Amino acid sequence: MSQPVLVVVAIAYLLLLFAIAWAVERGSGRISRLTGSSIVYTLSLAVYCSSWTFNGGVGRASQSGLDFLPIYLGPTLAFCLAPVLLRRILRISQANRITSISDLIGSRFGKSASLAALVTIIAVIGLVPYIALQLKSISSGLMALSTGRMTPGATGPMLADGALWAAIILTIFAMLFGSRSIRPGEHHPGMVVAVAAESILKLLSLTAVGLFVVYGLYGGFGDLFTQASKVPEIRVIFDEFPANHGYSWISMTALAALAVFCLPRQFQVMVVENVDENHLVRAAWLFPLYLLLINLFVLPIAFAGRMMLPEETDPDNIVLALPFVADYPALALVAFLGGLSAAASMVVVETTALSVMVCNDVVMPALLRVRRLGLSSRSDLTRLLLWIRRAAMAFIMVLGYIYMRHDSAQFALVSIGLMSFVAVAQFAPAILCGIYWRGASQLGAFAGISAGFLIWCYTLLLPSFAQSGALDIHFLIDGPFRIELLKPHALFGLSGLDPVTHAAFWSLLVNTGVLIAVSLGGRQTPVERARAAMFVDAVESGEAAQIWRRTALVPDLMSLTARFLGRERAAAAYASFARTRGVDPATAVQADAETVLFYERLLAGVIGAASARVLVGAIVEEEPLGVDEMMRILDETSRLIEANRQLEEKSQALEAATAELKEANARLQVLDRMKDDFVVTVNHELRTPLASIRAFSEILRDHPDLPDEERLEFLRIMVTESERLTRLIGQLLDLSKIEASGSMPAQSAPVDLAQVVRESAAAVQQVFARSRVELRIEVETEPAIVTGDRDRLVQVVINLLGNAAKFSPAGRGRAVLALRRVGREYELSVADNGPGIRPRDREVVFERFRQLGDSIDDKPQGAGLGLAISHRIVMQHGGRIWVEGTEAGGAVFKVRLPLSPRKAPEIGAPAASAHQA
Amino acid sequence: MLRRTARRDRMIGLFAAGAVLLNPPILNLVRGSLFGIPARYLYFFLVWALLIGLMAFVGERGSASADERGRGRPRR
C-alpha cells in the first residue's frame, strides 16, 4: 500500500468526520438531535481512549501482560463515584459557567488569574508529550503500512516524515472543529458528535482485529492462550506478580482515576460539553462498559503478536502488523483508521481544550493588562479570540512535533502517556480539596500545584530529556553533582519503584501536603471565602443537591433578609436586582459574590454594615454551630426590632392624636373669632336703627316748631325703626335658635311682595338719601302673593337694599329694586353699580359672618350677618338666593320665591300702612 | 430522598469493592489458568463486568424509579 493512497484515505476519513460535525452545527434534521443523547455523551467520553489505548495498550500487554488494565480500571472506579464526585464537579462548573480545568481551579480559589495561568502552563507542558505520542503513533502506523517495516524508530527525513503531515493536517482539523466560532459556554456539538463517531470506529476496528486474530488466526480464546502458555517468555509475564507488590498497578489505577477528570480533553467532553446532567448517570456505567469492550481483545492480540510476529517488531504496531502480515491489507487499513480515529479525536479535543485555556487564562489576561492596546474598551473581541486560539493550537502542535522528533523514540507509547497523567494529576489535590474543603486557600493551591509540578519536572521530564541525550545521562544515573539522594528516579533514596510510580508518589504527596499545610497556616481573603463556600456548599450529592438547588444559598439569604425586611420587600428587592443582571429571580439559586454582596448591602441598610457582614458570612460559610448561634442572636435582634417597631407605632398614634387635638383647637379658635365677629356685627346691626331713632328724636327735640305732619311722619319712622330693632333682636334670638336647633318655624301667611318692596324701600329711604344713592323701584306684577313670613321677607329686602346702599358709590350710585314674575316664581332683584363681587366669592357671601374685607372695621365691605340671615330666610320659604354680576360691573342679588297656591289677596293691616308710606 | 442517598451510598460501596477486588494484593492471589485461559484475565474481566453490571443496576433503577415517581405524581 503506497503512502499517498493511505494519506488520501486518511484525509477522506477526516473530511467525512468534519462533514458530520458541520451537519450537526448547521442543525439540519435528525443528526443535530444527536447531541442531546446520553449515548453520544458516553461515546464522546471515550476520547479517553487515544492511540495509546489502541496501539500502546497492545504494546504494553505484549511486554508485561495485564499491566495496561489499571488505566481503564481507574476511570471505572472514578465513575463509581460519579454521584459524589463527578456530578459535583459538573454542577459546580455549570453553575459557575466554567469552561476549562484551569477556569475551575482559578474560580474556586478567589477567581485567581495567576493560578489559572499556572494550571494552563502546566497542562500545556504536561500534555505536549501526550500529543507527541499521537503523532508518533500515526506516523509509525503510516510508515509500517506503507513500507511493511514494523520495526521501531523508523523515522525518515523531515519532509517525508508522516508525523509532520499528520501534525499539519490535524492542526487544520483541530482549528476547523474547535475554533470555527466563539460559542457561549464553549460548546462544540459538532466536535462531540464527530468524536462519538470516531469512538464507534475505534471500538469496531479493534474488535474486528481481535475477532480476526482469535477466531481467524487461532481457534478461539482457549486455543490462543494454550499456545501462548507454551511460550516461556509469555508464561513468565503471566504468572509473575505485578512488580513490587503491585505498587505500580495501584499507582496507575489512581493516576487514571484522577486523569479521567483532570485531563483537559476529558474535562471538555465530560463537563463543558455536557448538555444534560442526567447523561452522567447513564454514562457512569456505559463508559466503563465501553472501556471493558475495547480492552477485551487487547491481551489476545498482544499474545498473538508476540507469537506470530518477528522479535524486532515495534510492540506498538502489533495491531496493524497482524492483519498485514496475515495478508489482510483491508483489515490493516481498518486498524489504521481506528488508530487514526483515536489519535485524531484526542488531538482535536485536547488542543481545543488547551487553546481555550491558553487564550482565556494566559493570553487574554495579559493582553487586557497592556493598556496601550486598548482591548478592554473594544466591544467585539471574538475575531481576536479565534485567532489567538488558532495560534495556540498551532503552537501546541509544533511543540508536540518537536518533542516527538527529538525525544519520543526512546519511549513506548504508554510510558509517555503516563508521564502526562502524572502532570495533570497535579490538579487533582486542588480540585478535590477545593470542592470538599472550604479551608483550601488560593496560596495553598498555588504552592501545592507548583511544588508538585516541579517534582514532576525533576523526576519525569528532565530524565526523559536525559534519556534522549539532550542532558547528560549521568544526571540520571548518579544524581546531580553525584548526590545520591537527589537521583531523579530514586529521590531521597526511594528506589525500587518504576519512574512513574515514583514520580506520582512524590509529586502528589508534596502537592497535597503543601496545599493542606499552607491552607491551614494561612488566612483566606473574604472573596476567597465566599468563592470557597459557593463551591463547597454547592452540592452535597443526590437529593441533598436537589434541595440545595431549590433552597440553598439564595433562599437562605432570602429568608435571612426577609427576617429584617419582610418577605415582600426582600423579594421585590431581589427581583429588581436580578432583573438588572438579566437573571430570572425564580430560577437563580446560585448566589455568586455579587449577589452575596447585594444581600449584605441590603441587610446593612437595616441592621448596620458590621452585623450584616457577620450574618451573611455565617450563612455563606454555613458552619452549623455558627448558624445556630447566629440564629439565636438574630432572634433576639428581631425581637428588639419588633419592640422598636411597636414603640414607633405607638408614638405615631400619639402624634396622630396630637394632630387631631391641634386641629380641634384650631377649629375652636376660629369659632371663637367668629363669635367675636358676630358680637361686633350684631352691635353694628343694632346701632343702625338706634342711630335712626336717635337722629329723628334729636330733630324733634331741637325743632319744636316742626309742622305736625312732619312730626308725625318722624315719629312714625321712629316707631317703625324701634319695631324693627325689636324684630332684629328677636331675629338674633331666632338666629341663635336656628344655630342651636337648625330649624325655625316660619310664619305662614299670604304676603304681597309688592307691599314688601314698598315698605322696605320706605324703610331704607333715609339711608339712601344719606348716602346719596338713587333708588328706583320697578314692580312689574301686583299683587305678588307668596306664602311666608312678612317681616322676614321685609328683612331680606332691607338687607339687600342696605348692602346696595353701602356698596354703591356715593353721589352717582344707582340701585334698582325690581319685582317680576318668572314662570311659577316671583323674582326680587336688587342691583347696584358698586364694585361687584368676584365670581369666586359669590358662593361664600351667604355664609354666616363671611366678610369679604379683611377686618370687621372695614365697614363698607361688611356683609356680615345680613346675607346669612337672608339666605336662611329665603331657604325657609322654599326659595333661592344668589348673586350675579351686572354688565356695568356691579352686583345683582336675586331672590326667587314660589307663587302661593292661594290666590286670595288677604292683605293685612301692616301691609296697608306700609303702602301708605 | 432516601433512595437517592441510598444510590449514592451503594455506588460508593461498589467503588470500595472494585478498588479492593481489582487491585493488589487481592489480585495477586489469582493465578494459574482455568480452561486454558489465564485465570487472572478471566477473573479481572469477570469482576469488572460484574462491577459494571451492578453500577448499571444501581444507577438505572434509581433513575427509573425517580422517573416513575415523577410521572406518577401528576396522575394522582
Using brief descriptors, characterize the structure shown.
heterodimer; A: 917 residues; mainly alpha; Helix Hairpins; 4 domains; 5-stranded mixed beta sheet; two-stranded antiparallel sheet; 35 helices; rod-shaped; disordered C terminus; B: 76 residues; 3 helices; elongated
Put simply, the count of helices of chain A is 35
Please tally the helical runs of chain B, counting DSSP H or I stretches of 4 or more residues. Answer: 3
Spatial order of strands in the largest sheet of chain B: 1-2
On the 0 to 100 scale, the average pLDDT of chain B is 75
- Cα-to-Cα separation, first versus last residue of chain B: 20 Å
Tell the overall outline of chain A. rod-shaped
Q: Between the first and last Cα atoms of chain A, what is the distance in angstroms?
A: 152 Å
Which helices and strands, and how do they pair?
The complex is a heterodimer of chains A (917) and B (76).
Chain A: H1 3-26, H2 38-45, H3 51-64, H4 70-80, H5 82-95, H6 101-108, H7 113-147, H8 162-178, H9 189-217, H10 221-230, H11 232-239, H12 243-262, H13 264-272, H14 279-295, H15 298-308, H16 318-325, H17 329-369, H18 382-406, H19 413-425, H20 427-436, H21 442-468, H22 474-477, H23 499-521, H24 526-536, H25 542-551, H26 553-565, H27 567-580, H28 593-607, H29 609-621, H30 624-702, H31 708-741, E1 749-752, H32 753-770, E2 773-779, E3 785-788, H33 790-807, E4 813-822, E5 825-831, H34 864-876, E6 880-885, E7 891-898, H35 909-916
Parallel strand pairs in A: 2-4
Antiparallel strand pairs in A: 1-3, 4-5, 5-7, 6-7
Helix pairs in contact in A: 1-8, 1-9, 1-17, 2-9, 2-14, 3-7, 3-15, 3-17, 4-12, 4-14, 6-7, 6-20, 7-8, 7-17, 7-18, 7-19, 7-21, 8-17, 8-18, 9-15, 9-17, 10-15, 12-13, 12-19, 12-23, 13-17, 15-16, 16-17, 17-18, 19-23, 21-23, 26-27, 26-28, 26-29, 28-29, 30-31, 32-33, 32-35, 33-34
Chain B: H1 2-21, H2 26-29, E1 33-34, E2 37-38, H3 39-75
Helix pairs in contact in B: 1-3
